[in-house]
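Module 6 notes. Inverse folding takes a fixed backbone as the condition and produces residue identities as the prediction. Think of it as a translation problem where the source language is geometry and the target language is the twenty amino acids. Below is one complete input and output pair. Work through it position by position during the lab.
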């Protein structure tokens, strides 16, 4: 079974920075794609950024140039460096992975971490 644990959320002023971490457990699994999603208050969950095991990266237009996604495959950990934060970045941020073990594939989610950006 895969478990994802996020950390690093909190309250920050506009223009500030935060770094989120997502630690994945389940060493027999291959974490093919890891991604950050967010769900602003009253809105649907949306993709923020994704990174494959080979290092291919994709960003939502709203965060390009401000956020940086990375992963340490040896530690099964993913990061999201968030700079120049805006009030509209306020959301619960979720870690996600599409993981496989042999022929088994699964889509897994963390519990979420709150990021609040004050103006």
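Target side of the pair, the amino acids:
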């Amino acid at each position: 079974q895969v478990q994802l644990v996020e950390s690093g959320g909190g309250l920050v002023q506009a223009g500030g920075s935060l770094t989120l971490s997502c630690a994945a457990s389940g060493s027999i699994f291959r974490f093919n794609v890891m991604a950050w999603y967010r769900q602003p208050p009253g809105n649907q969950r949306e993709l923020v950024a994704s990174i494959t095991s080979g290092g291919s990266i994709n960003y939502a237009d709203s965060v390009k140039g401000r956020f940086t996604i990375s992963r340490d495959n040896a530690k099964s950990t993913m990061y999201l460096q968030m700079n120049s934060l805006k009030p509209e970045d306020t959301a619960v941020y979720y870690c996600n992975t599409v993981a496989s073990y042999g022929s088994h594939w699964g889509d897994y989610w963390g519990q979420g971490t709150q990021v609040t950006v004050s103006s």
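Reference fact for the lab report: Residues 8 and 20 are 5 Å apart (CA to CA).
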